[in-house]
UniProtKB/TrEMBL annotation:
PROSITE patterns: ACYLPHOSPHATASE_3. Belongs to the acylphosphatase family. Keywords: Hydrolase. This is acylphosphatase. One of its GO terms (molecular function) is acylphosphatase activity. Gene3D superfamilies: 3.30.70.100. It comes from Selenomonas ruminis. Its EC number is 3.6.1.7. The active site is at R21, N39. Residues 2-93 form the Acylphosphatase-like domain. It comes from the Bacteria. It holds the Pfam family Acylphosphatase. The keyword Hydrolase applies. It catalyses: an acyl phosphate + H2O = a carboxylate + phosphate + H(+).
Amino acid sequence: MILAIRYFGTAAGRVQGVGFRMFVQQHAMDLHVTGWIRNMEDGTVQMELQGEPEAIDKLEGFIREGNYFIKVESFSLEERPVVDGEKRFDVRY
């Protein structure tokens, strides 16, 4: 059995209107991380990430690093209960 963990995260900075949700979704799918991501009215982006601890660590690194367009100024994670049977990483609107 594979050990899975789940986190609720909030990212702030230049994270809306720059492809951030698709960036996170693509890396999550590459790392077999499930969960969801959505823009918030206050300009932040919230997400839940579930997967193996090493995959979550790698994804966190990609999120914090960003790219030419994305600049994450703060990123917080809080543990959450694992959601059984989750198979995808969705962008929520």
